[in-house]
Amino acid sequence: MSVPPAPPPPPPPLPPLREVIARHGLSASKALGQNFLFDAQLLGRIAAIPGPLDGKAVLEIGPGPGGLTRALLAAGARVTAIEMDRRCLPALDELAQAHPGRLRVVEGDAMRIDHDAQMGEPYAVVANLPYNVGTALLVRWLGAAAWPPRWRSLTLMFQQEVAQRIVARPDNAAYGRLAVLAQWRSTARLAMKVHRSAFTPPPKVMSAIVHLEPAAMPEGVSPRVLERVTEAAFGQRRKMLRQSLKGLPGAIEALDAIGIDPRRRAETLAVEEFVALARVLS
Ligand SMILES: C[S@@+](CC[C@H](N)C(=O)[O-])C[C@H]1O[C@@H](n2cnc3c(N)ncnc32)[C@H](O)[C@@H]1O
């Protein structure tokens, strides 16, 4: 009778993150928007937001010293991580060695990298990024030409005020172009608030994580027309639509055709009403 081979020994435990940071001299760089998370429990809760990740492909942007990366790997994900700070690469390399075949690190600026080409399969995105980079990437992901896009979900940390703009509903001061862009063919929810004290160093403002998933794309709507309509409407958000949309040929007639009162203001229109307006103009 043959004896089954013994399972491989578990990898040695990883050193605490703070120790890794000290050993590799990873002082947080302000220019790179570095605010690190160390709390393993919090990181585990963040990694759970996209749902079960066992065996799934995950794109992490900005792993830094690898706190969130550790939590994603612990959840069983196969991680591709894009980091532009070369100083973090040795620490990430140690993490890759502890999880053979499950962490690939790409050095570079995530704004300049073709994510779909890197991944080559559907993937979930998870990121704790500087505010300006996060918003620019969000707009890029939401504006994908092909729909549904290759990404299956986005789990992204933002300043709380930006997170509120993404998930805002009409009749709210936070409601604007970002909300329409995020909600016309995706679902967007505020998944978790994160206190500023959770970060090292703590940023000035509170943060929150938004989770988005692609939804069905409304038929007969050109994304570019929708963009033009929201730009005009929210460009003068205090004005009535008959004034703010005056420069958009056919827009006033379109309001009439779908029964939207031209005396209303942009922030009172539901996302579906913007979609209907864009459909008539598309
Ligand atoms: C807020 S820190 C978060 C680090 C780590 N994920 C954590 O949660 O502790 C942001 C990380 O994004 C990286 N980063 C900033 N801009 C980037 C870009 N354009 N492309 C790739 N990484 C970027 C920074 O170097 C930094 O490591």
What number of structural domains do the residues give?
2
User: What's the level 1 CATH class of the largest domain?
Assistant: Alpha Beta
Structural class: alpha/beta
Number of helices: 12
Taking strands numbered 1, 2, ... along the chain, how are they ordered across the largest sheet? 4-3-2-5-6-9-7
Helix and strand run: HEHEHEHEHEHEHHEEEHHHH
CATH architecture of the largest domain: 3-Layer(aba) Sandwich
Fill in the CATH topology of the largest domain: Rossmann fold
Q: Could you name the CATH homologous superfamily of the largest domain?
A: Vaccinia Virus protein VP39
Uncertain runs: none
Please give the number of β-strands: 9
Label the overall shape. Answer: elongated
Q: Bound small molecules, which ones?
A: S-adenosylmethionine
Level of helix content? 25-40%
The biggest sheet amounts to:
7 strands, mixed
Q: Report the β-strand fraction as a percent range.
A: 15-25%
Radius of gyration: 22 Å
Mean pLDDT: 95
Distance between the termini: 72 Å
